[in-house]
Every structure is written in structure tokens, then in C-alpha cells.
Design goal:
- The protein has 153 residues and is an alpha+beta fold.
- The protein has a single domain (27-151), classed as PAS domain (Beta-Lactamase), CATH 3.30.450.
- The protein has four helices and seven strands; from the N terminus they run αααββββαβββ.
- It has helices spanning 4-23, 29-46, 48-55, 103-114; strands at 63-64, 67-68, 70-72, 78-81, 116-124, 131-141, 144-151.
- It has a five-stranded antiparallel sheet, sandwiched between helices.
- β5 and β6 (131-141) form a beta hairpin.
- The longest helix has 20 residues, at 4-23.
- The chain is globular and about 35 Å long.
- The N and C termini lie far apart (47 Å).
């Protein structure tokens, strides 16, 4: 038994190092899609009110590095946006990227016509402070639109 203690310590140190490495790694579009799918399933399971509250909590399981869930309501108002709370309550149809592309409307249109898919647009990356291409996986959940975006590397 005493000889297992150093092994356990090494395993715990290895896990800690792996967590630190992940924290510094930018999220990928595949991870954004997985989080959006998880969020959509959660919304279907518990309903919009509870899901939206969960999406806005740092410890709710729906914030991962720079990934967070955004929800547009049936009236196209932005209901969540952990990473950009200043946009909550705004009309999503008015959102434009740094080049003037109306990506908010494109997200709504894709959700209504196809049910799910990718929307690309250009935004300032809060980490690098540089304009970069971002892609969001969009899913219609009833009358709501759920999406998560990641910068392309």
C-alpha cells in the first residue's frame, strides 16, 4: 500500500498538468458544435427557462474556455450570451460582423430553413485582439435558436 502513494501523486500531477494545458488551448469548431448539441439537448429536456439560466452560470456546464452558449428567442432577441452580456435583450437581426455581414440574421435564417448548420463571420478575438474568422454551429430548438461559436485557427 505505501508504494502506491507515490504513483497516485504522479497520476494527480499528470492530471493537473493536462488541465492546465487544456486551459491554454483555444477551443475548436468541433468543440463548439459538441457544446451546442449538448445545450440544445438540455433545452429540450428541461425547457427554455431553466436551460437559459444554466447557460448563464459559469458553473452550469455550458462555458468552456472561450466557448459559451447563445440563445435567440422567438422574437429574435438575444436571451443569453455569457461572454457578451451587453448584447442580452438586443435584436439579433441587427447584428453585423466587423465587415458589415448581417450574421445575426443569417443565423436565424439557417435555423429556420435547415434546422442546423454552420455560419461563418469575422469578429475580434478577445484573446488575441485580432480580427479572425469565427464559425458557429446553429441549432433550432422549437422557436428558439441555440448556437456556440469558435474561432478558426
Amino acid at each position: 500500500m505505501p508504494h502506491r502513494l507515490p504513483l497516485l501523486g504522479l497520476v494527480l500531477v499528470g492530471m493537473f498538468i493536462a488541465l492546465l494545458a487544456r486551459a491554454g488551448t483555444p477551443a475548436t469548431p468541433d468543440e463548439a458544435k459538441a457544446l451546442a448539441e449538448k445545450a440544445a439537448a438540455h433545452m429540450r429536456e428541461v425547457g427554455p427557462e431553466k436551460a437559459i439560466a444554466d447557460f448563464m452560470r459559469a458553473d452550469g456546464g455550458y462555458v468552456d474556455r472561450e466557448l459559451f452558449v447563445v440563445v435567440y428567442g422567438p422574437d429574435n432577441k438575444i436571451l443569453t450570451g455569457y461572454g457578451v452580456p451587453v448584447l442580452i435583450g438586443k435584436d439579433a437581426t441587427k447584428l453585423k460582423d466587423v465587415e458589415g455581414k448581417p450574421f445575426g440574421q443569417e443565423i436565424i435564417d439557417l435555423a429556420k430553413t435547415k434546422g442546423s448548420g454552420w455560419v461563418d463571420y469575422r469578429m475580434t478575438n478577445a484573446v488575441t485582439k485580432k480580427v479572425a474568422e469565427k464559425t458557429s454551429w446553429v441549432i433550432r430548438v422549437g422557436d428558439y435558436v441555440v448556437f456556440v461559436g469558435a474561432f478558426k485557427n
